[in-house]
């Protein structure tokens, strides 16, 4: 699978050109979307395959949905907390 839309350059701009941060952010959001859809669907019927369910309900896989949310600014991260967690700045300054 390759990221074509949204463009990888646009996604990297949203994460200070840190591909590892982008990957982590998209992965966590994709899990959140999957859990949300699974919870909604469990109320109606038993789930057999969550990945197939997600694509069936939304027409997209969860990573694509997460990447679109990152590039349009719906999902972001706190830059100061991120830098403090890495030890790049004093946490009291964050």
Could you describe the 3D structure shown?
61% of the residues lie in helices and 0% in strands. It has helices spanning 8-13, 19-42, 50-58, 62-71, 79-86. Helix 2 crosses helix 3 and helix 2 packs across helix 4. The mean pLDDT is 78.
* Total number of helices: 5
Query: Could you state the order of secondary-structure elements as H and E?
Result: HHHHH
| Annotation, overall tally of beta strands | 0
Summarize the amount of helix as a percent range: 55-70%
Shape: flat
Query: How would you characterize the largest beta sheet?
Result: none
Q: Write down the Rg.
A: 16 Å
Q: Low-confidence spans: pLDDT under 50, at least 5 residues? A: none
By oligomeric state, this entry counts as: single chain
Structural class: mainly alpha
Separation of termini? Answer: 37 Å
- Beta content comes to under 5%
The chain-level mean pLDDT equals: 78
Spell out the blueprint of helices and strands:
Elements: H1 8-13, H2 19-42, H3 50-58, H4 62-71, H5 79-86
Helix pairs in contact: 2-3, 2-4
Characteristic key phrases:
single chain; 94 residues; mainly alpha
Give a short synopsis of this structure.
This protein has 94 residues and is mainly α. The chain has five helices and no strands. The longest helix has 24 residues, at 19-42.
